Amino acid sequence: MKQEFTVTVYSENRVGILNQVTTVFTKRHINIESLTTSESAIEGIHKFTVVVYATKEEIDVLVRQIEKRIDILKAYYFSQDEIVYQEIALYRVPTASLFEGNEVEKLVRQYGARILEMTPEYTVIEKTGHKSETQDLFNKLDPYGVTQFTRSGRVAINKLKKEPLNSYLRKLARNGVNPEIKTD
Amino acid sequence: MEDQKKDTVKMTGSQAVMESFVREGIDLIFGYPGGAIMPVYDALYSYREKINHILVRHEQGAVHAAQGYARASGRVGVCLVTSGPAATNAVTGIADAMIDSTPVVVISGQVGSPLLGSDAFQEVDVVGVTQPVTKWNYQITRADEIPWAIARAFYIARTGRPGPVLLDITKDAQFGSLDYSYRPVTSVRSYTPYPSVDPGLVEEAARLINLSSRPMALVGQGVVLAGAEKELIEFLEKTGIPAAQTLLGLSAIPSRHPLNVGGLGMHGNYGPNVMVNQSDLVIAIGMRFDDRVTADPKRYATSARVIHMEIDPAEINKIIHADVPLLGNVKESLPMLTAKVSRNDHSKWLEEFRACERVEYKRLVEREINPDKPEITMSEVVARVSEAYDDDAIMVTDVGQHQMIAWRYFKFRQSRSVITSGGLGTMGFGLPAAIGAKLAMPDRPVCLFVGDGGFQMTIQELGTIYQSEVPVKIVLLNNNFLGMVRQWQELFFDHRYAHTSLINPDFQTIAKGYHVPAVKVTRREDLDKAVKKMVSADGPFLLEVAVEKEGNVFPMVPAGASVDEIILE
Question: Is residue A161 domain-resident?
Answer without folding.
Answer: yes
